[in-house]
Write a structure and sequence with these properties.
Length: about 450
């Protein structure tokens, strides 16, 4: 009998999402009226104001802003790059500064370019070959990895730490192949870091599109004396105040037990951040909206958190966990959507074997919606700081094959969003939250 009742509730959730959902309209506004929402920007603040107003309109028990200090990095005027095969013979290539990079000198940098397949190859070449040159990191994402996030994980170190490591060998700057499985002309940005390196020792870093990386690599095989020029004007400012946006429905019988669902409100400044992670934010907001619309009154407190500054600092996730700890709040479940607004396939869970056994018992309820991927694994960056014994954490896992086509790039725009896929993802999240709330762990 309980199984039948649960099936009926899931059907109501999916039907409501597909006919009365608000997620697509919310994302339309975030993307097309506000745009890219880099931490510390005017657009990030506009997104805070807008999402708070929309949560207020849902009639939740409480909506508030949680202050958090975030970094403010500005890209500046558009970057420019070319490679020179002989004096005066140049080919322009699309690049973009990596987030957090220092600028080039005002006149740019021009030098010979050394191609490597990863950070470990720097030591093999040594300072004699690298000093005074630009390093070109060209290790591609592995196309044989069916889980594209595995392919990303296997080569993202060159983006994050490439500049820091190359500078130790005297490099003047680095160019990094975009984290993208598709051949196109869009450079993909993303965070990079210098560790505790003195500012004076830091070198600029930029991403180059996959098509341009292939062209540059082929050209270097024909002529190893190619010179590369690039200019970028990015700048780091002092931290500024921003906010996590939080909405809550108080639990009817176990209000002290908190279930969190969320995504990150900030995005990169290229494109409008529709997939990464506007989709996750509006899906998380929709979870509370769908449960209210279907008449479900939660036993536990349900909380949506739109985290600020996941992209270049994780300040929002850390602040939320810090405040939760200081208040001795009891979080029992946390779910994050941060993998794009594509067709939902299932979830990964960070939990014990016993907890996972209970989750798998719900799997049959999701199969009519072609949601069947239930695996132990990671959850999400923003909810990660909450981790403690007993807390179950999960991540929505949409189909990942197109994700890195748009990730951190200029083409991450609203027209790449499929309305139905976005709504199915929200319904899938709401269904899991319903089951966790009803049965607990």
């Amino acid at each position: 009998m309980a199984q039948s009742t649960d099936a009926e509730q899931l059907e109501k959730i999916y039907d409501t999402a597909l006919t009365q959902g608000k997620a697509y309209g919310w994302l339309n506004y975030l993307s097309n009226q506000i745009g890219g929402r880099l931490s510390g920007s005017v657009q990030a603040q506009q997104a805070v104001d807008y999402t708070k107003s929309q949560l207020d309109s849902l009639g939740l028990d409480k909506v508030w802003l949680q202050p958090v200090m975030v970094p403010k990095w500005v890209r500046g005027t558009p970057e420019f790059a070319y490679f020179e095969t002989s004096p005066g013979v140049t080919t322009n290539v699309p690049i973009c500064a990596l987030g957090g990079s220092v600028p080039t000198p005002p006149k740019g940098i021009k030098a010979n370019i050394i191609e490597v397949n990863g950070i470990e190859q720097l030591a093999t070449l040594g300072k004699d070959k690298i000093q005074g040159n630009i390093v070109f990191f060209n290790r591609p994402m592995d196309p044989t990895k069916i889980n594209t996030f595995d392919a990303y994980s296997n080569c993202v170190d060159q983006r994050y730490a490439g500049a820091m490591e190359a500078s130790k060998f005297g490099a003047l700057g680095v160019i990094v192949r975009s984290m993208n499985l598709r051949s196109d002309d869009f450079p993909h940005t993303g965070s990079m870091g210098y560790g505790d390196q003195p500012v004076a020792d830091r070198i600029p870093a930029a991403a180059i599109s996959t098509n341009a990386a292939d062209l540059l690599s082929t050209s270097l095989k024909l002529n190893s004396e190619i010179k590369f020029y690039f200019k970028q004007n990015c700048k780091e400012f002092s931290d500024v105040e921003s906010y996590n946006v939080i909405g809550e429905i108080k639990g009817s019988s176990h209000p002290e037990e908190i279930i969190v669902v969320g995504g990150h409100l900030d995005s990169w400044d290229l494109g409008d951040g529709s997939h990464y992670d506007g989709a996750g934010c509006v899906q998380s907001m929709e979870v509370l909206n769908l449960l209210r619309k279907t008449g479900y009154r939660p036993k536990r407190t349900l909380r949506v958190v739109l985290f600020m500054n996941e992209e270049n600092g994780l300040r929002g996730g850390n602040k939320y966990a810090e405040v939760a700890t200081s208040k001795n709040e009891n979080h029992v479940f946390a779910l994050e959507s941060d993998s794009g607004g594509f067709t939902p396939r299932g979830f990964t869970f960070d939990c014990t074997d016993k907890q996972f056994e209970k989750v798998v018992g719900w799997k049959d309820l999701f199969e009519p919606y072609m949601v069947h991927y239930f695996k132990k694994g990671g959850s999400g960056a923003d909810i990660g700081p909450l981790k403690k014994e007993g807390l179950v954490m999960a991540g929505l896992r949409p189909d990942s094959q197109r994700y890195f086509d748009y990730h951190h790039a200029e083409n991450d725009t609203f027209e790449q969003i499929n309305k139905r896929e976005l709504e199915l993802g929200a319904a899938t999240m709401a269904s899991l939250v319903y089951l966790v709330d009803k049965y607990g762990f």
